[in-house]
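so my prof wants the structure for this chain in the tokens format not the other one, which i didnt know existed until like an hour ago. anyway here's the sequence
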Amino acid sequence: MKRAFMPKDQQMCCELIRDAPTREDVALLSGADGHPISAACHERLASVVEGIRARGADVGFVVFDEEAGMTLALNADTRFFGASTVKAMWVTYLFQDHLERGRVAWDEIAGHVERCIARSDNKAYTVLRSNYGAEREFADWLVRAGVGYISSWDYYTPREQALAWTHMLAYTQSDGAYVDAWKAAFDHSTRSFIREVLGGRRVVYSKPGWIRQNERRPNTYDDAAIVIDDDGRRYLVSIMSTMDPFGDCAKLYDLAAALDSICKQQRA
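here's what i got, hopefully its the right format
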């Protein structure tokens, strides 16, 4: 049976994510009962991060594992361009504050949601953001997770993205009438490196964002996801980077796998 979302649950998640340390190295674990990262996991993670930096890129992440009581962070408060990851936030706000309250009909927005999330279609996102919901309400939705206002295309931090995704984490565990529709949109997002690495063994709800450097924006390849094991254990991961999304992105795939290994170790 699904449980109804309790605001205190999300508040606790937000508090743990806000407490994740801000550092530029990889010795960043606040784990279950203070368990450290194993030497092998630490070395693997450090090697991946060094490999990303060797390509002239930067990366930041926040991982929150509710079951293990773990937060793990790198460059948590470094601002990155969010690209299309913002679409996950607006769509989830519409689900929670409009669909679930009967303020908009599912049939009216279903096609836009599919294109916006699964295909990352910018036109569908523009339609949803321009015609459904309200900017002030969205700002309030973000504030409830402890995040400042995020415009249509914006810069934010891995911590802020993770905090916004606490809404998604809570929603997936709720009794909402449209939770299954939300999951159906988020379980096959195009170019999600987290899902491509872990989706064969896990349920992954994700939304990436990417853009190649131009005169206005830097190289960007971000992803955020909820990863769920067969036994229902789940964790939230927010990764933001300045990797060229159309170059060699193997190190981002390696990063998703390394973070997953740490989560598994913490649960052992």
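also thought this was worth mentioning. The mean pLDDT is 90.
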